[in-house]
Amino acid sequence: MSQNPYCAGDFVWTHFPERENPARPGPRHVGYVVLSNSTAPGSAVLVAFTTSRPWNGPRPPGLYSIDRETAASMGQSRPFTLDLRRIAPLPVTGAWFPDLDTPNHGILGRAPERLRLEYQAALTELARRRRENIERLGPGR
Amino acid sequence: MDDTQHQTLLRPDDAEPELAPFGAPLHIAVPAGLLDHAHTVDREPGESDERYQARCDLWAAVLDYAKRG
């Protein structure tokens, strides 16, 4: 079993699960690591969804539109949307992280510390204040 | 973000999943085998009590949701 190379703030290649099949790895996709619990083998990380689709209109809590300049500072080639409303705690295994065993582990960039803390706080707020408004998908085992 | 944007944009942007609308619930996908992994949070070198507690709280909340159902 591999060590966990992922840290909070990393943008990384994942097989983020699709909504229609939340228990299984989805297509190859860039995810944002909100939290990593350990560096030890057998760890898991909390990953949030990203997309190059833009968001139009009032911004809901937990959704961030990243402009081109900020995206470039995070190692991304174009603007994108970070959606903390859609998350998955993922085991750190090759099934979920296709580049886990490559030299850079599929890490594409990192958010600055200020934004990392902002995103963590935003997700904590979502989880605390909106407990009645959480949709859990998948078997969990 | 899908794989293609870092390659040759073989897929159009509209191949990306739609974003959930304003007011959508927090959506937590719970993968198969998750609960075999990682029930504790390690303290990072030099991490303050406050920051460590914040990470523990968030992880505990997510695992709590994951265990339901």
In words, what does this structure look like?
The complex is a heterodimer of chains A (141) and B (69). Chain A is an alpha+beta fold and 141 residues long. Chain A has one domain: Roll (SH3 type barrels). Helices cover 16% and strands 32% of the residues of chain A. Chain A contains two helices and seven strands, in the order ββββαββαβ. A six-stranded antiparallel beta sheet of chain A has the order 4-5-3-2-1-6. The radius of gyration of chain A is 14 Å and the shape is globular. Chain A starts with 9 loop residues before the first strand and ends with a strand. The model of chain A has no long low-confidence stretch (mean pLDDT 89). Chain B is mainly alpha-helical and 69 residues long. Helices cover 28% and strands 6% of the residues of chain B. Chains A and B meet through strand 2, strand 3, strand 5, helix 2 and strand 7 of A and strand 1 and helix 1 of B. Strand 7 (134-137) of chain A pairs parallel with strand 1 (26-29) of chain B, so a sheet runs across the interface.
State the gist of this model.
The complex is a heterodimer of chains A (141) and B (69). With 141 residues, chain A is of the alpha+beta class.
Q: What is the succession of H and E elements of chain B?
A: EH
Topology, number of strands of chain B = 1
Report the CATH C-level class of chain A. Mainly Beta
Q: What is the domain total for the residues of chain A? A: 1
Query: Termini of chain A, distance in Å?
Result: 19 Å
Given helix and strand content, the structural type of chain A is alpha+beta
| Helix coverage percent of chain B | 25-40%
Largest sheet composition of chain B: none
Largest sheet of chain A: 6 strands, antiparallel
